[in-house]
Design a protein that fits this description.
By secondary structure, the protein is α+β, with helices and mostly antiparallel strands. The chain has one domain: Peptide deformylase (Peptide Deformylase, Alpha-Beta Complex). It is 22% helix and 28% strand. The longest helix is centred in the first third of the chain and has 16 residues. The structure holds zinc ion.
Length: 175
């Protein structure tokens, strides 16, 4: 049975480490980690979660966009484990949009991200995929990829003025 994992928070040094390339995708450790991340992100109303957020310094994350309490306008997709992910090319255009992070509870920020990216990743069965992602899903990918390099979204803010509390964010949403 998959189990819910504890999500570590900003200040834990693991969140600032560069995660390790995953060599053994099919290993029991990695497969169990994927299963546990899938249930953990769902339980937390997240749209993505990266292995370092559960104190595992491996280059893998889950992208699981769907409307939920924290992101009511998110598009729906099948939750996908992306292992050893990379950005191959990206649009010149960047767009600012709201982000939060399970490791930085209570804070939201308007973060500039590439509008479109071409990415490559290995799925949990070991198959390499090339894919184009746009808008909110591209944003999730860039947010999660940053976690693998020890970067969090508040590092990407253009100004501290672009940061608000979760409570104020929820107030904006209902307007
Ligand atoms: Zn995050």
């Amino acid at each position: 049975m998959p189990e819910l994992l504890d999500v570590i928070e900003l200040g834990n040094p693991i969140l600032r480490q560069k995660a390790q390339w995953v060599e053994a995708v099919q290993s029991e450790r990695i497969q169990t980690l994927v299963d546990n991340l899938l249930v953990t992100v769902k339980d937390a109303n997240g749209v993505g979660i990266a292995a370092p957020q559960v104190a595992q310094s491996d280059r893998l994350f889950i992208v699981a966009s769907r409307p939920n309490l924290r992101y009511p306008h998110a598009p729906t997709m099948e939750p996908t484990a992306m292992i050893n992910p990379q950005i191959l090319t990206h649009s010149d255009e960047t767009v600012k949009g709201w982000e939060g992070c399970l490791s930085i509870p209570g804070i939201r920020g308007q973060v500039p991200r590439y509008q479109a990216i071409e990415v490559e990743y290995t799925d949990r069965n070991g198959k390499r995929h090339k894919q184009e992602l746009t808008d909110f899903v591209a944003r999730i990918f860039q947010h999660e990829l940053d976690h693998l390099d020890g970067i969090v979204f508040v590092d990407r803010l253009e100004s501290t003025q672009d940061m608000i509390t979760e409570r104020e964010y929820q107030r904006i949403l209902v307007d």
